[in-house]
From TrEMBL:
EC nos: 2.7.1.6
Site positions for Transition state stabilizer: 5
Record organism: Dactylosporangium siamense
Record protein name field: Galactokinase
Residue positions binding Mg(2+): 105, 137
Domain GHMP kinase C-terminal: 258-338
Amino acid sequence: MSPGRVNLIGEHTDYNDGFVLPFALPNATAVSGTRLPEQRWEVTSEQTGETVRFDLAGGLSEKVEGWAAYVAAVVWVLREAGVDVPGARLTIASDVPFGAGLSSSAALECATMAVLVDLAGADLPLRDRPRLAQRAENEYVGAPTGIMDQAASTLCQEGHALFLDCRSLATEQVPFDLAAAGLKILVVDSKAPHAHVDGEYAARRRACEEAAGILGVTALRDIDVAGLPDALAKLDDETMRRRVRHVVTEDQRVLDTVAALRAGDLRAAGPLMTASHESMRDDYEITVPQVDTAVRVALEHGAHGARMTGGGFGGCVLALVDEEDCDAVEAAVREAFAVNGFTPPDTFVVTPGQGTSQISR
Protein backbone atom coordinates (compact mmCIF):
# COMPACT_ATOMS: atom_id res chain seq x y z
CA MET A 1 0.00 0.00 0.00
CA SER A 2 1.32 3.45 -0.94
CA PRO A 3 -0.13 6.88 -0.17
CA GLY A 4 -0.77 9.97 -2.20
CA ARG A 5 1.05 13.08 -1.13
CA VAL A 6 0.75 16.79 -0.74
CA ASN A 7 3.75 19.02 -1.18
CA LEU A 8 3.97 21.55 1.60
CA ILE A 9 6.36 23.64 -0.49
CA GLY A 10 8.81 23.21 -3.37
CA GLU A 11 6.96 23.09 -6.68
CA HIS A 12 8.71 22.30 -9.98
CA THR A 13 12.04 22.21 -8.18
CA ASP A 14 12.45 18.44 -8.28
CA TYR A 15 13.39 18.12 -11.95
CA ASN A 16 15.76 21.05 -11.43
CA ASP A 17 17.78 18.99 -8.90
CA GLY A 18 16.37 21.17 -6.12
CA PHE A 19 14.62 20.77 -2.79
CA VAL A 20 11.09 19.68 -1.90
CA LEU A 21 9.10 19.19 1.29
CA PRO A 22 6.17 16.80 0.79
CA PHE A 23 4.30 14.65 3.26
CA ALA A 24 2.24 11.53 2.73
CA LEU A 25 -1.54 11.57 2.85
CA PRO A 26 -3.69 9.22 4.91
CA ASN A 27 -5.29 8.39 1.53
CA ALA A 28 -3.58 5.46 -0.17
CA THR A 29 -3.65 2.98 -3.03
CA ALA A 30 -3.60 -0.71 -2.20
CA VAL A 31 -2.58 -3.35 -4.74
CA SER A 32 -2.99 -7.04 -3.93
CA GLY A 33 -1.80 -9.82 -6.17
CA THR A 34 -1.44 -13.53 -6.85
CA ARG A 35 1.04 -15.19 -9.18
CA LEU A 36 0.12 -16.53 -12.60
CA PRO A 37 2.03 -19.41 -14.22
CA GLU A 38 2.77 -17.46 -17.42
CA GLN A 39 4.28 -14.07 -18.21
CA ARG A 40 1.11 -12.04 -18.46
CA TRP A 41 -0.63 -9.59 -16.16
CA GLU A 42 -4.30 -9.05 -15.37
CA VAL A 43 -5.20 -5.85 -13.51
CA THR A 44 -8.62 -4.98 -12.08
CA SER A 45 -9.61 -1.59 -10.70
CA GLU A 46 -12.22 -1.74 -7.96
CA GLN A 47 -13.04 1.91 -8.67
CA THR A 48 -14.00 1.44 -12.32
CA GLY A 49 -14.68 -2.28 -12.42
CA GLU A 50 -12.44 -2.44 -15.48
CA THR A 51 -9.98 -5.30 -16.07
CA VAL A 52 -6.97 -4.85 -18.36
CA ARG A 53 -4.81 -7.71 -19.56
CA PHE A 54 -1.37 -7.31 -21.09
CA ASP A 55 2.01 -8.83 -21.71
CA LEU A 56 5.20 -7.00 -22.58
CA ALA A 57 6.20 -8.98 -25.65
CA GLY A 58 6.27 -5.79 -27.71
CA GLY A 59 8.34 -3.84 -25.16
CA LEU A 60 8.14 -0.07 -25.46
CA SER A 61 6.79 -0.31 -29.00
CA GLU A 62 3.44 -1.69 -27.83
CA LYS A 63 2.53 0.31 -24.73
CA VAL A 64 -0.50 -0.21 -22.55
CA GLU A 65 -2.67 2.91 -22.43
CA GLY A 66 -4.80 4.59 -19.76
CA TRP A 67 -4.56 3.97 -16.03
CA ALA A 68 -3.15 0.47 -16.56
CA ALA A 69 -0.09 2.03 -18.22
CA TYR A 70 1.25 2.87 -14.74
CA VAL A 71 1.05 -0.82 -13.78
CA ALA A 72 2.65 -1.97 -17.03
CA ALA A 73 5.35 0.65 -16.59
CA VAL A 74 6.33 -0.81 -13.22
CA VAL A 75 6.45 -4.34 -14.64
CA TRP A 76 8.66 -3.06 -17.45
CA VAL A 77 11.06 -1.06 -15.25
CA LEU A 78 11.48 -3.88 -12.71
CA ARG A 79 12.35 -6.28 -15.51
CA GLU A 80 14.79 -3.71 -16.90
CA ALA A 81 16.38 -3.59 -13.43
CA GLY A 82 16.85 -7.35 -13.40
CA VAL A 83 13.94 -8.29 -11.12
CA ASP A 84 12.35 -11.59 -12.18
CA VAL A 85 8.80 -10.28 -12.15
CA PRO A 86 6.27 -13.12 -12.29
CA GLY A 87 3.00 -12.95 -14.16
CA ALA A 88 0.30 -11.83 -11.78
CA ARG A 89 -3.38 -11.11 -11.27
CA LEU A 90 -3.60 -7.73 -9.50
CA THR A 91 -6.47 -5.86 -7.85
CA ILE A 92 -6.33 -2.11 -7.17
CA ALA A 93 -8.28 -0.19 -4.55
CA SER A 94 -7.66 3.50 -3.87
CA ASP A 95 -9.09 6.50 -2.08
CA VAL A 96 -6.49 8.94 -3.47
CA PRO A 97 -8.45 11.50 -5.55
CA PHE A 98 -7.57 11.09 -9.22
CA GLY A 99 -6.44 14.12 -11.20
CA ALA A 100 -6.28 16.39 -8.16
CA GLY A 101 -2.52 16.89 -8.00
CA LEU A 102 -2.22 14.52 -5.02
CA SER A 103 0.00 12.04 -6.85
CA SER A 104 -2.48 9.25 -7.48
CA SER A 105 -0.21 7.98 -10.27
CA ALA A 106 2.85 7.67 -8.03
CA ALA A 107 0.75 5.97 -5.36
CA LEU A 108 -0.32 3.39 -7.95
CA GLU A 109 3.24 2.92 -9.21
CA CYS A 110 4.74 2.49 -5.75
CA ALA A 111 2.00 0.18 -4.50
CA THR A 112 2.33 -1.94 -7.65
CA MET A 113 6.09 -2.07 -7.18
CA ALA A 114 5.67 -3.20 -3.59
CA VAL A 115 3.44 -6.15 -4.44
CA LEU A 116 5.44 -7.22 -7.52
CA VAL A 117 8.72 -7.14 -5.59
CA ASP A 118 6.99 -9.17 -2.88
CA LEU A 119 5.66 -11.72 -5.40
CA ALA A 120 9.11 -11.98 -6.98
CA GLY A 121 10.76 -12.54 -3.61
CA ALA A 122 13.27 -9.86 -4.58
CA ASP A 123 15.43 -7.70 -2.34
CA LEU A 124 14.81 -4.15 -3.49
CA PRO A 125 15.37 -1.61 -0.69
CA LEU A 126 12.82 1.18 -0.33
CA ARG A 127 15.51 3.81 -0.96
CA ASP A 128 16.12 2.38 -4.45
CA ARG A 129 12.49 2.35 -5.55
CA PRO A 130 11.73 6.04 -6.22
CA ARG A 131 14.26 6.26 -9.07
CA LEU A 132 12.79 3.16 -10.70
CA ALA A 133 9.22 4.41 -10.32
CA GLN A 134 10.23 7.78 -11.77
CA ARG A 135 11.86 6.04 -14.74
CA ALA A 136 8.68 4.04 -15.27
CA GLU A 137 6.62 7.24 -15.47
CA ASN A 138 9.16 9.13 -17.59
CA GLU A 139 10.07 6.46 -20.14
CA TYR A 140 7.01 4.24 -20.33
CA VAL A 141 4.07 6.52 -19.53
CA GLY A 142 5.76 9.55 -21.07
CA ALA A 143 5.23 12.03 -18.22
CA PRO A 144 8.37 14.16 -17.60
CA THR A 145 7.96 14.26 -13.82
CA GLY A 146 10.69 14.67 -11.25
CA ILE A 147 11.31 12.25 -8.41
CA MET A 148 9.37 13.97 -5.61
CA ASP A 149 6.08 12.09 -5.94
CA GLN A 150 7.60 8.61 -5.94
CA ALA A 151 10.00 9.49 -3.11
CA ALA A 152 7.18 10.90 -0.97
CA SER A 153 4.91 7.93 -1.59
CA THR A 154 7.70 5.52 -0.67
CA LEU A 155 9.76 7.20 2.04
CA CYS A 156 7.55 9.51 4.10
CA GLN A 157 7.06 8.82 7.80
CA GLU A 158 3.96 9.50 9.84
CA GLY A 159 4.02 12.85 11.64
CA HIS A 160 6.84 14.22 9.48
CA ALA A 161 7.47 16.11 6.27
CA LEU A 162 10.14 14.69 3.97
CA PHE A 163 12.95 17.14 3.19
CA LEU A 164 14.38 15.73 -0.01
CA ASP A 165 17.43 16.84 -1.96
CA CYS A 166 16.43 15.76 -5.46
CA ARG A 167 20.04 15.64 -6.66
CA SER A 168 21.65 13.51 -4.00
CA LEU A 169 18.40 11.91 -2.77
CA ALA A 170 19.49 12.72 0.78
CA THR A 171 16.47 12.87 3.06
CA GLU A 172 15.54 14.26 6.45
CA GLN A 173 12.35 13.47 8.30
CA VAL A 174 11.31 16.87 9.67
CA PRO A 175 8.79 16.78 12.55
CA PHE A 176 5.48 18.31 11.50
CA ASP A 177 3.10 17.97 14.44
CA LEU A 178 0.16 20.13 13.45
CA ALA A 179 -2.07 19.18 16.38
CA ALA A 180 0.57 20.14 18.95
CA ALA A 181 0.73 23.59 17.35
CA GLY A 182 -3.05 23.97 17.22
CA LEU A 183 -3.00 23.93 13.42
CA LYS A 184 -4.63 22.07 10.56
CA ILE A 185 -3.88 21.66 6.88
CA LEU A 186 -7.11 22.11 4.94
CA VAL A 187 -7.02 20.68 1.41
CA VAL A 188 -9.33 22.17 -1.20
CA ASP A 189 -9.71 20.01 -4.31
CA SER A 190 -10.62 22.62 -6.89
CA LYS A 191 -12.07 20.03 -9.28
CA ALA A 192 -10.20 21.75 -12.09
CA PRO A 193 -8.67 18.82 -14.00
CA HIS A 194 -4.95 18.23 -13.48
CA ALA A 195 -2.66 16.23 -15.77
CA HIS A 196 1.10 15.84 -16.27
CA VAL A 197 1.12 14.32 -19.74
CA ASP A 198 0.58 17.58 -21.54
CA GLY A 199 2.56 20.24 -23.35
CA GLU A 200 2.49 22.85 -20.60
CA TYR A 201 4.35 20.82 -17.97
CA ALA A 202 6.89 19.65 -20.54
CA ALA A 203 7.37 23.20 -21.84
CA ARG A 204 8.31 24.46 -18.40
CA ARG A 205 10.76 21.67 -17.82
CA ARG A 206 12.29 22.33 -21.23
CA ALA A 207 12.61 26.07 -20.48
CA CYS A 208 14.44 25.29 -17.25
CA GLU A 209 16.85 22.91 -18.95
CA GLU A 210 17.53 25.42 -21.73
CA ALA A 211 18.16 28.16 -19.19
CA ALA A 212 20.58 25.96 -17.25
CA GLY A 213 22.48 25.36 -20.48
CA ILE A 214 22.69 29.07 -21.25
CA LEU A 215 23.85 29.80 -17.70
CA GLY A 216 26.46 27.03 -17.77
CA VAL A 217 25.13 25.07 -14.79
CA THR A 218 24.05 21.46 -14.46
CA ALA A 219 20.61 22.49 -13.19
CA LEU A 220 18.91 25.60 -11.83
CA ARG A 221 19.53 24.31 -8.33
CA ASP A 222 23.12 25.52 -8.81
CA ILE A 223 21.97 29.16 -8.76
CA ASP A 224 21.18 30.65 -5.38
CA VAL A 225 19.14 33.73 -4.54
CA ALA A 226 22.24 35.90 -4.22
CA GLY A 227 23.30 35.00 -7.75
CA LEU A 228 19.83 35.34 -9.24
CA PRO A 229 20.12 38.95 -10.54
CA ASP A 230 23.28 38.14 -12.50
CA ALA A 231 21.71 34.97 -13.87
CA LEU A 232 18.58 36.76 -15.03
CA ALA A 233 20.67 39.43 -16.75
CA LYS A 234 22.21 36.73 -18.96
CA LEU A 235 18.82 35.60 -20.26
CA ASP A 236 17.22 37.46 -23.16
CA ASP A 237 13.81 35.79 -23.02
CA GLU A 238 11.43 37.29 -20.43
CA THR A 239 9.41 34.08 -20.08
CA MET A 240 12.58 32.12 -19.38
CA ARG A 241 13.61 34.71 -16.79
CA ARG A 242 10.31 34.23 -14.97
CA ARG A 243 10.68 30.46 -14.97
CA VAL A 244 14.20 30.69 -13.55
CA ARG A 245 13.15 33.21 -10.89
CA HIS A 246 10.43 30.86 -9.67
CA VAL A 247 12.70 27.84 -9.36
CA VAL A 248 15.55 29.66 -7.62
CA THR A 249 13.32 31.49 -5.13
CA GLU A 250 11.24 28.36 -4.55
CA ASP A 251 14.33 26.39 -3.55
CA GLN A 252 15.10 29.09 -0.99
CA ARG A 253 11.55 28.98 0.32
CA VAL A 254 11.92 25.24 0.92
CA LEU A 255 15.11 25.80 2.90
CA ASP A 256 13.45 28.57 4.91
CA THR A 257 10.42 26.39 5.64
CA VAL A 258 12.59 23.50 6.81
CA ALA A 259 14.43 25.88 9.14
CA ALA A 260 11.10 27.07 10.58
CA LEU A 261 9.86 23.51 11.17
CA ARG A 262 13.12 22.49 12.79
CA ALA A 263 12.69 25.42 15.16
CA GLY A 264 9.12 24.36 15.91
CA ASP A 265 7.64 27.52 14.39
CA LEU A 266 5.05 25.94 12.11
CA ARG A 267 3.12 29.17 11.59
CA ALA A 268 6.17 30.74 9.96
CA ALA A 269 5.63 28.36 7.06
CA GLY A 270 2.42 30.20 6.19
CA PRO A 271 3.85 33.33 4.50
CA LEU A 272 6.35 31.15 2.63
CA MET A 273 3.48 29.03 1.29
CA THR A 274 1.68 32.16 0.12
CA ALA A 275 4.82 33.51 -1.56
CA SER A 276 5.20 30.15 -3.29
CA HIS A 277 1.70 30.42 -4.69
CA GLU A 278 2.27 33.96 -5.92
CA SER A 279 5.43 32.78 -7.69
CA MET A 280 3.59 29.88 -9.32
CA ARG A 281 0.86 32.27 -10.42
CA ASP A 282 3.02 35.11 -11.72
CA ASP A 283 6.38 33.59 -12.71
CA TYR A 284 5.61 29.97 -13.53
CA GLU A 285 2.08 30.68 -14.75
CA ILE A 286 0.58 27.34 -13.74
CA THR A 287 -2.43 28.34 -11.64
CA VAL A 288 -6.07 28.60 -12.69
CA PRO A 289 -8.93 30.79 -11.40
CA GLN A 290 -10.29 28.09 -9.09
CA VAL A 291 -7.05 27.64 -7.16
CA ASP A 292 -6.32 31.38 -7.10
CA THR A 293 -9.78 31.95 -5.63
CA ALA A 294 -9.30 29.29 -2.97
CA VAL A 295 -5.97 30.80 -1.92
CA ARG A 296 -7.28 34.37 -1.81
CA VAL A 297 -10.40 33.48 0.18
CA ALA A 298 -8.51 31.28 2.65
CA LEU A 299 -6.09 34.12 3.38
CA GLU A 300 -8.94 36.61 3.76
CA HIS A 301 -10.54 34.37 6.38
CA GLY A 302 -7.52 33.85 8.60
CA ALA A 303 -5.26 31.23 7.00
CA HIS A 304 -1.60 31.68 7.90
CA GLY A 305 -0.69 30.71 4.34
CA ALA A 306 -2.13 28.97 1.30
CA ARG A 307 -0.79 27.63 -1.95
CA MET A 308 -1.55 25.33 -4.83
CA THR A 309 0.13 21.94 -4.54
CA GLY A 310 1.09 19.75 -7.47
CA GLY A 311 2.09 20.28 -11.06
CA GLY A 312 -0.48 22.97 -11.75
CA PHE A 313 -3.28 23.84 -14.18
CA GLY A 314 -5.81 22.59 -11.64
CA GLY A 315 -5.59 20.35 -8.62
CA CYS A 316 -5.57 21.19 -4.93
CA VAL A 317 -4.84 24.06 -2.57
CA LEU A 318 -3.35 23.71 0.91
CA ALA A 319 -4.33 26.18 3.60
CA LEU A 320 -2.48 26.33 6.93
CA VAL A 321 -5.13 27.34 9.46
CA ASP A 322 -5.67 27.50 13.19
CA GLU A 323 -7.91 24.66 14.34
CA GLU A 324 -10.66 27.04 15.37
CA ASP A 325 -10.69 28.77 11.97
CA CYS A 326 -10.82 25.66 9.80
CA ASP A 327 -14.62 25.44 9.45
CA ALA A 328 -14.94 29.15 8.65
CA VAL A 329 -12.24 28.98 5.96
CA GLU A 330 -13.83 25.91 4.43
CA ALA A 331 -17.27 27.54 4.35
CA ALA A 332 -15.91 30.74 2.82
CA VAL A 333 -14.13 28.86 0.05
CA ARG A 334 -17.28 26.90 -0.76
CA GLU A 335 -19.30 30.09 -0.92
CA ALA A 336 -16.76 31.77 -3.20
CA PHE A 337 -16.82 28.81 -5.59
CA ALA A 338 -20.61 28.99 -5.74
CA VAL A 339 -20.56 32.75 -6.38
CA ASN A 340 -18.07 32.27 -9.22
CA GLY A 341 -19.98 29.39 -10.79
CA PHE A 342 -17.18 26.89 -10.19
CA THR A 343 -17.79 23.18 -9.63
CA PRO A 344 -18.22 22.68 -5.85
CA PRO A 345 -14.86 21.72 -4.32
CA ASP A 346 -14.07 18.77 -2.14
CA THR A 347 -12.47 19.76 1.15
CA PHE A 348 -10.75 17.66 3.77
CA VAL A 349 -8.17 17.93 6.53
CA VAL A 350 -4.92 15.96 6.26
CA THR A 351 -2.16 14.92 8.63
CA PRO A 352 1.26 13.53 7.64
CA GLY A 353 0.93 9.81 6.98
CA GLN A 354 3.12 6.77 6.38
CA GLY A 355 4.86 5.82 3.13
CA THR A 356 4.88 2.46 1.36
CA SER A 357 4.14 -0.66 3.36
CA GLN A 358 4.63 -4.15 2.01
CA ILE A 359 1.61 -6.29 1.14
CA SER A 360 1.77 -9.98 1.95
CA ARG A 361 1.14 -12.61 -0.67
